[in-house]
Automatic annotation (TrEMBL), chain A:
It is found in: Membrane. The gene is LOC104699789. Plays a role in vesicular protein sorting. Belongs to the VPS35 family. Pfam families: Vps35 (PF03635). It is a peripheral membrane protein. It comes from Camelina sativa. This is Vacuolar protein sorting-associated protein 35. Keywords: Membrane, Protein transport, Transport. InterPro entries: ARM-type_fold, Vps35, Vps35_C. PANTHER family: VACUOLAR PROTEIN SORTING-ASSOCIATED PROTEIN 35 (PTHR11099:SF0), VACUOLAR SORTING PROTEIN 35 (PTHR11099).
TrEMBL record, chain B:
It comes from the Eukaryota. This is Vacuolar protein sorting-associated protein 26A. InterPro entries: Arrestin-like_C (IPR014752), Ig_E-set (IPR014756), Vps26-related (IPR028934). It holds the Pfam family Vps26. The lineage of its organism: Eukaryota, Viridiplantae, Streptophyta, Embryophyta, Tracheophyta. It comes from Camelina sativa. Belongs to the VPS26 family.
Length: 789, 302
């Protein structure tokens, strides 16, 4: 192409337009003076400007539009001439005297239009003549525009059903024939453009063809708007003829555009009834045609059609739309060997969406689609194309979205097979999608079998997949997010039947334990919690309450729990294991399983001793131990003594004095359980409290040595006072009025020292509480009455 | 003008009128000087009758040795201009020698005149019919007046009229088959036909149909041939591909055609040809010429 091509083009267009205008002016003058001969002469000269080969389609269109306007005027003039007595037949001949073909044919079409309007001859004859004569223009661009003009003037004169041009001799068949013929010729010209001119201009040519395609497509639009084109006509004439042309033209651009045109232009109902014909054409198209988009659009349309008109669904069944589509896709893929995987997947994805919309009840269809997809994917290994991957994700998400129920998806046996072909990253994404769907819809998954299937699906989250080396690790945040979602998922796996539930849990365990250290931290707790829930639902007595041989016994479950938790310390989260042991111990307590509870406690203690070294963590852990132990009533005296002793021992060994103090006074509770008379040892309660006081004292001393704020120790005293009051209230004989009073006195002395607002308010509210209890009266009131402040 | 004419014009004015002159059809004829005049139209076997008026100027008397009218059919070759060859010559004596004093009218009639040839105006030859009135005078020279008239002969449609169909081409380059619906066309006819492209390996730009007239004069070694293109009618624009068929529809009305004349009195022939011309993008021309016969069909007088 010449560098200043566009500039030249502008010049040519300007020159052409100028000459055009001039002749148009003379033509108008001739029209005004009713001079037919001159009008013809100047109009022919004017139209000669359209003979140029120098303009691009865009610019040529400019000129064409001017011609179009002028020809309207001429047509009106012709019409007037015929009213003045000029024979239209003569006129029709007269315009054909023009020596140059292009102007001649434009004039002929214009005269033909008038001829039809006068109804002196059947419209079909004239239209047929026009469409035949137009063959004289073999130049693609000029031919396309000429025929486009013909289509335009013919459009309102077609002998359509209900049209004024319909008659005995003129039927809609003739109208269809005319449009089809014109369409065929236009398409030929359009396709020919591709093959003319030097190869280096290919890109430009394709662009130009793109600009012209609507001229061709317009014909299909006209066909679709004919009243007389009913389903029969469409099926028997229109579609086969159009398809024949499309297939035979062997041009990629044309095939793609026109097939799409058919799909968009004609009603869905027709498509439905002619599916096999339409689909039959697809494998015959050029391999480079993007059939995937075409078919996707078709299926999309049909899906929407089905979605919007529920009453048409029976037709879908009647014509076996699904199997036809499925077959067609198979054939297309077969025919196009080197079709990229993306295309194939997109096709299946669309088909799946289609079947989900149209046959939501036919799960086997969906499964079939997935099956075909698997077949297609097999032998190709993992998919690397990111777009294809995305498409698979959308394929897999479709059933989830549709059914809002992962259970249904789990019934699709091919579903996991498709997942297999994803790369690890995508598998994870897919798994998250699945879980999200479950969470959103609160779907309970109730059988072991389904759980197994589900876990298979989301394997990507549960296991480390055999990642090729050198792959970047998953982002920590993402990982956490994913694992959290797995954790949430655990709670959706639920069955009222304990046996089944146990199975579910066992499966979970099996999978989770293989998950590697990083995951256990997230997956074990929900599993334990879920198991504990199960235990709670078990009959309280461990042995058979109903005389049946229960396969699920608490003992078994506890063993099971133990196994799970054992896995945790291997992971750097002893903390978590510790808590879980305590939880389990408590559950065992409820089930009155002393040895098991003891075992759990032992495990917890071991963890405390061996793994929990951080002092802050120790404090918290100890509090947990004390709290849990306090509630345990299953232990015999000996076991309990051992455990409590240990606990107090731990308390005393804490690093910071205040911590020690608090732990020790907390331990006091271990010796006094309200409801269990066996565990009411006032002596040891007092001992604990006294020890706490001692520690508080030494803490105070250390404080006065300037090591820490002294205010802290006052708080400790007040806290101990509260404990005293608690036990005093409970009526433990060893807690005497005097001891309480002296403690209050002590605190009051301390109070005189530099004030600490927290301690002050704490003390004030303690006193207030005492006063309050006093006021209440009764036994407790009496006891408080005794305390002299 | 008149007085100028008067200066050269001898003593009388001769005018010729035809019997049905008012109703008879007039057709345009191009004269030597390029002027177009209307002349009455006759055909063979018609009776040519009328009146001749001799009008002496201003009371002059015209002495003569007799008055006659001749009907001449002449062929004039332009290389031999002024030399007429009369193939038809009929004479009617109108008056015996004497004197004319005042306007005098002579009726005349040539009944059922055989006029086998049509009036023709070509490049190198002309065939004309003329009425020649001669007032013969001895010494002063005869006074002569001419009146041209046109003869056209109509023929019935030929009983056999085959189409022209032919396949032509250049090997491995271009093969076409063309078909014209007839080989004989009347002058108001339409040529219908089709051009099929069987093989196209050249880049064709356009295709025209030319109507050519071939006028040959003289005989033997002196034969002179002149070819004119009377019409150039574009049939196709752009490059067709194999399998295309291009319609042909050419109305003959707008062109100035005559019937085909074969060997008119051994003097000349006029033949017509359809010339199909294909032009490629390098402006090379590929053509095929086919003779057609033109004839004059009796027009419907509606």
């Amino acid at each position: 192409m010449i560098a200043d091509g566009t500039e030249d083009e502008e010049k040519w267009l300007a020159a052409g337009s100028a000459a055009f205008k001039q002749n148009a002016f003379y033509m108008q003058r001739a029209i005004d003076s009713n001079n037919l001969k001159d009008a013809l002469k100047y109009s022919a000269q004017m139209l000669s400007e359209l003979r140029t080969s120098k303009l691009s389609p865009h610019k040529y269109y400019d000129l064409y539009m001017r011609a179009f306007d002028e020809l309207r005027k001429l047509e009106i003039f012709f019409m007037e001439e015929t009213r003045r007595g000029c024979s239209v037949i003569e006129l029709y001949e007269l315009v054909q005297h023009a020596g140059n073909i292009l102007p001649r044919l434009y004039l002929l079409c214009t005269a033909g239009s008038v001829y039809i309007k006068t109804k002196e001859a059947p419209a079909k004859e004239i239209l047929k003549d026009l469409v035949e004569m137009c063959r004289g223009i073999q130049h693609p661009l000029r031919g396309l525009f000429l025929r486009s003009y013909l289509a335009q003037i013919g459009r309102d004169k077609l002998p359509d059903v209900g049209s004024e041009y319909e008659g005995d001799a003129d039927t809609v068949t003739d109208a269809v024939e005319f449009v089809l013929l014109n369409f065929t010729e236009m398409n030929k010209l359009w396709v020919r453009m591709q093959h003319q001119g030097p190869a280096r201009d290919k890109e430009r040519r394709e662009k130009e063809r793109g600009e012209l395609r609507d001229l061709v497509g317009k014909n299909l639009h006209v066909l679709s708007q004919l009243e007389g084109v009913d389903l029969d006509m469409y099926r028997d004439t229109v579609l086969p003829r159009v398809l024949e042309q499309i297939v035979n033209c062997r041009d990629e651009i044309a095939q793609y555009y026109l097939i799409d045109c058919i799909i968009q232009v004609f009603p869905d109902e027709y498509h439905l009834q002619t599916l096999d014909v339409l689909l039959g054409a697809c494998p015959q198209l050029q391999p480079s045609v993007d059939i995937m988009t075409v078919l996707s659009r078709l299926m999309e349309r049909l899906s929407n059609y089905a979605a919007l008109n529920a009453e048409v669904l029976p037709y879908f069944l009647q014509v076996e739309a699904f199997s036809k589509l499925n077959n067609a896709i198979g054939k297309v893929i077969e025919a196009q060997e080197d079709m990229p995987i993306l295309s194939a997947v997109t096709l299946y994805s669309s088909l799946l969406k289609f079947t989900l919309h149209v046959h939501p009840d036919r799960l086997d269809y969906a499964d079939q689609v997935l099956g075909s997809c698997v077949k297609q994917l097999s032998g190709k290994g993992k998919i690397n194309d990111t777009r294809a991957t995305k498409e698979i994700v959308s394929l897999l998400s479709a059933p989830l979205e549709k059914y809002n129920d992962v259970v249904t998806a789990l019934k699709l046996t091919n579903y996991p097979l498709v997942v297999e072909y994803l790369d690890n990253e995508t598998k994870r994404i897919m798994a998250t999608v699945i879980i999200r769907s479950i969470m959103k819809n609160n779907t309970l998954i109730t059988t072991a079998e389904k759980v197994e299937a589900l876990l298979e699906l989301i394997k990507g989250l549960i296991n480390d997949l055999d990642e090729p080396e050198g792959l970047e690790a998953v982002d920590d945040d993402d990982f956490e997010e994913e694992q959290n979602s797995v954790a949430r998922l655990v709670h959706m796996l639920y069955n009222d039947d304990t046996e089944e539930m146990f199975k579910i849990i066992s499966i979970l365990k099996k999978h989770f334990l293989t998950g590697g250290p990083k995951r256990l931290k997230f997956t074990i707790p929900p599993l334990v919690v879920s198991t504990l829930k199960l235990i709670r639902r078990l009959p309280v007595e461990g042995d058979n309450p109903f005389g049946k041989e229960a396969s699920v016994t608490a003992t078994k479950i506890f063993q099971f729990l133990n196994q799970i938790i054992e896995a945790l310390p291997n992971v750097p989260s002893p903390d978590l294991a510790f808590r879980l042991y305590l939880q389990c111990a408590e559950a065992a307590n409820k089930c009155v399983e002393e040895p098991i509870a003891y075992e759990f406690f032992t495990q917890a203690y071991i963890l405390y001793e061996e793994e929990i070294s951080d002092s802050k963590a120790q404090v918290t852990a100890l509090q947990l131990i004390i709290g849990t132990l306090q509630r345990m009533h299953v232990f015999g005296v000996e076991n309990r003594d051992t455990l409590t002793h240990k606990a107090t021992g731990y308390s005393a060994k804490l690093l910071k004095k205040p911590d020690q103090c608090r732990a020790v006074y907390a331990c006091s509770h271990l010796f006094w359980l309200e409801d269990h008379e066996t565990i009411q040892d006032g002596e040891r309660v007092l001992l604990c409290l006294k020890r706490a006081l001692k520690i508080a004292n030494s803490a105070q001393q250390m404080a006065s040595n300037g090591q820490e704020g002294s205010a802290g120790s006052v708080t400790l005293f007040i806290e101990i006072l509260n404990k005293y009051l608690y036990f005093y209230e409970k009526g433990i004989p060893q807690i005497t009025v005097e001891s309480v009073e002296s403690l209050i006195q002590l605190i009051k002395n301390e109070e005189s020292m530099p004030s600490d607002p927290y301690a002050e308010s704490l003390f004030a509210s303690t006193l207030q509480f005492m006063e309050f209890q006093k006021q209440k009266g009764g036994a407790i009131g009496d006891r408080y009455e005794e305390i002299k402040v | 003008m008149n007085f100028l004419l008067g200066a050269f014009k001898p003593a009388c004015n001769i005018s010729i009128t035809f019997t049905d002159g008012k109703n008879r059809k007039q057709v345009p004829i191009k004269k030597d000087n390029g002027q177009i005049v209307m002349n009455p139209l006759f055909q063979s076997q018609e009776t040519i009758a009328g009146k001749i008026h001799i009008d002496p100027y201003q009371g002059k008397k015209v002495e003569h040795n007799g008055v006659k009218v001749e009907l001449l059919g002449q062929i004039e070759m332009y290389f031999d201009r002024g030399n007429f060859y009369d193939f038809t010559s009929l004479v009617r004596e109108l008056d015996v020698p004497g004197e004319i004093y005042e306007r005098k009218t002579y009726p005349f009639e040539f009944s059922s005149v055989e006029m086998p040839y049509e009036t023709y105006n070509g490049v190198n030859v002309r065939l004309r019919y003329v009425l020649k009135v001669t007032v013969t005078r001895g010494y002063a020279g005869s006074i002569v007046e001419y009146q041209d008239f046109v003869v056209r002969n109509y023929v019935p449609p030929p009983p056999i009229n085959n189409s022209i169909k032919m396949e032509v081409g250049i090997e491995d380059c271009l093969h076409i088959e063309f078909e014209y619906n007839k080989s004989k066309y009347h002058l108001k006819d339409v040529i219908l036909g089709k051009i099929y492209f069987l093989l196209v390996r050249i880049k064709i730009k356009n295709m025209d149909l030319e109507i050519r007239r071939r006028e040959s004069t003289g005989a033997g070694a002196n034969t002179h041939v002149e070819t004119e293109t009377l019409a150039k009618f574009e049939l196709m624009d752009g490059a067709p591909v194999r399998g295309e068929s291009i319609p042909v529809r050419v109305f003959l009305t707008p062109y100035d055609l005559t019937p085909t004349h074969t060997n008119i009195n051994n003097k000349f022939s006029v033949k017509y040809y359809l010339n199909l011309v294909l032009v490629d993008e390098e402006d090379r021309r590929y053509f095929k010429q086919q003779e057609i016969t033109l004839y004059r069909l009796k027009e419907e007088t509606s």
